[in-house]
Each structure stands twice: as structure tokens, then as C-alpha cells.
Amino acid sequence: MAQPHIQAALDEGHGEMTVADVFARIKRGFWKLWVIPGVGAGVTEFCEYPAYRALIIRLWAANTWAVDYRTAYFGVLEFAKACGCKAVEVFGRKGWERKLPGFKHSISVLRKEIWA
Predict the structure, then answer these.
(1) Is the Cα dihedral 15, 54, 89, 49 positive or negative?
(2) Domain residue extents for the chain
(3) Which fold is adopted by the domain 3-99?
(4) Contact, 32 vs 80, CB < 8 A?
């Protein structure tokens, strides 16, 4: 159920990993899989900074910005709070800023391919 959404999120990247890589990390307990049946799926992981803990949304894709999807978003925030996180970070396209209430763009990552 989650695989097509995970693949869609990966398709927006630069080939850093495959669906099999993502599910291997989930199976080993490094990442948490979130599934919204019929709507979308995502992957999060904890980051233990020296000063605080954060929840990172690594991948997220959905068919639509539906009410169920917004509910899942708030569920992720509540999960992060319950797990003692000080922040939730999204590693994704700048366009996510329009979709995520309360999030502000803080940095941009520039990328240049150096091989042919």
C-alpha cells in the first residue's frame, strides 16, 4: 500500500536510495513508516542533535491534500512531541512550506552534479 507513494517521493530526489533501501531501514527500526490508506505514505526518523531531539520527515507523498492527510500531519507533530522532540524538520522541496502550517523556510540546499 505504501510502496507507490514512497516511490513517488523518491522520484522527486536525486537517486539517493531505492524503495528497497527505504523498507530495509524501516525493517531495521531506523525509520518509521506512516501510511494513510488510500491517500499517501511517509517516512520519519529521529535525529539526536547534541542539544535536542528532532523528528525528520524524510519522505512523504500523497494523492491529494485531503482532510485525512492533514490529520496525519498533525498526528506526526503529536508523535514528535510525545517522543520528546523539540522540532520537526522536513527534508524536501521548498513547495512544502505552503502545505505545512507553522513551518518556515530556513535554509536551501544547492546541488551540482559533478559526474557525467
Answers:
(1) negative
(2) 3-99
(3) Aminopeptidase (3.40.630)
(4) no
Question: Which value, to the nearest 10 degrees, does the dihedral of the CA atoms of residues 24, 46, 73, 108 take?
Answer: -100
The pLDDT tens digits for 68-90 are 666 777 888 889 999 999 998 88
pLDDT tens sequence across 12-68: 888 889 999 999 999 999 999 999 888 889 999 999 999 999 999 888 888 765 556
Looking at the chain, which runs of residues are DSSP E strands?
32-36, 40-48, 53-62, 87-90
- Rounded Cα distance between 99 and 94, Å, is 10
